[in-house]
Structures are given as structure tokens and as C-alpha cells.
Amino acid sequence: MQHTPPSRILVVDDDPTVAEVVAGYLDRAGFTVDRAADGPRALELAAAVRPDLVVLDLMLPGMDGLEVCRRLRADGPVPVIMLTARGDEEDRILGLEVGADDYVTKPFSPRELVLRVASVLRRAHARSSDPRPAPLLRAAGLVLDPAARRATKDGAELALTLREFDLLSFLLRHPGRACSREELMHEVWGWEFGDLSTVTVHVRRLRGKVEDDPARPQLIRTVWGVGYRFEADGAQLPQGPAQPPQGPGVRGEGADRA
């Protein structure tokens, strides 16, 4: 009987205590773990061992985590979870902008981080292993090709992160319906619980890429007290409900409005 090898996680943090604790929890959860204390070593290890996911500290000496993330993602779509020492929105936006799939703010629960790792890996595996043909999604000048993970607006390609693509895809599949932040977190992120401001930040970033005037959004509308609604007259969308994969939940805080 052939067994699937454990997923390989690269932990990048210059704080040896944090790196040891994170690596220990991941090891006990059944993952194979490699560690690096700086950016150059992280890139060297990533090229050598090809990790399934990278846990990456933002504040690294010399080459910071943002630059490491840019270089990692330039070599392929490896999932990245960013560790940030500060919880302000600027850090979140910067991490998400360079392609991080998730972020965890220090101090954090190592058990929560393990759940986040499992959730991101589960979704990445589902995307790569689903054999079903995915129809194109078309609405308001937007065209999404789920199989190729490619999106365009009025013929121009959109540079969307993995989460932005998944979020836009879900909204396109449910035009005209008010989607709560909790629903989006469950369906797009696969979490039962979490920091709802993650959804807010992603919506704001997505508007900046698909709206003609992000300050006055016409496609992704805010439904006050609920969440968001995608508006597109005459949308040409496939029939049937979307069934994105689900993942474990984590505790979090409330959301900002956008």
C-alpha cells in the first residue's frame, strides 16, 4: 500500500525561540519541517527541498519577508503564511499584495497556526487535484478561467493573488446576493471562525483591481451590516451552487468596514 508523504513546511524566522516552537508544533502535527533564520537561506532551502508551504516572518534581517515572498512566488505558486509582529492594516495589505495566502499576527497561538497551515494546504491540494472541467465565468467585462487561474477585465489581464481570485470567483457565482463576511470566510477561506478584517482587506484590494473607481465601487457593493454583493447586469454565469472546499476554523476578532 502506497502512503502519501507528509507535507513539507519551511519555517523562516530569525527568532530561534519562535522558530523552535512553531517547528515543534508542526512536527507533532505530522509535517516535515525545515528551518531558516534569514531570507537568503530560506530561498536556498526552498530551491533545494521544494516545500509545500512556507511560514514566513515579515521582519527578517537584511532581506525582509516581503522580498522573500516575492522571490518565492516568482519561482512558483507555493502557499505562504506571513507572520507579522504588528497587527496594523498596512502590514496585512503589504503581505497580501505580494501574494501571501494568509497572515498571523504575533503573539499567536501555535495551535492556531497549525490549523491555518492545514487549511491553506487543503485548499491548495483541492485546487490542483479537482479533475472536473471548470467553466469560464463572465460578467461586466470580467472573464475568469478557474482551470488556468487567469482573470481579465476588458481583455487586460488582472494580477490577482490566490485568495483574490477565489473571492472574485465566489462573488461571480452568486451575483445579486448579499454575502456576509462570515459566509465569505467560510466559503473562500474554509474557516468556521477567524479575523473578519481579513475579508475586508481582500475586498478592498480586489476593488482596486476590478473597479473603474475603487472609491465608488459599482461591481462589489457594500451591504451595510451584512457584507458584500456583486452587481452585474446580464451576467453570463454557469448554473448550480459553488462547492468550495471547507477547512478547520480558528478564533478571531471583528471586522473593519469597507
UniProtKB/TrEMBL annotation:
GO terms for molecular function: DNA binding. Residues 8-121 form the Response regulatory domain. The modification 4-aspartylphosphate is found at residue 57. Keywords: DNA-binding, Phosphoprotein, Transcription, Transcription regulation. PROSITE patterns: OMPR_PHOB (PS51755), RESPONSE_REGULATORY (PS50110). It comes from the Bacteria. Pfam families: Response_reg, Trans_reg_C. Residues 134-232 bind DNA. Residues 234-258 are annotated as: Disordered. CDD domains: REC_OmpR (cd17574), trans_reg_C (cd00383). Residues 134-232 form the OmpR/PhoB-type domain. This is DNA-binding response regulator. It comes from Streptomyces hiroshimensis.
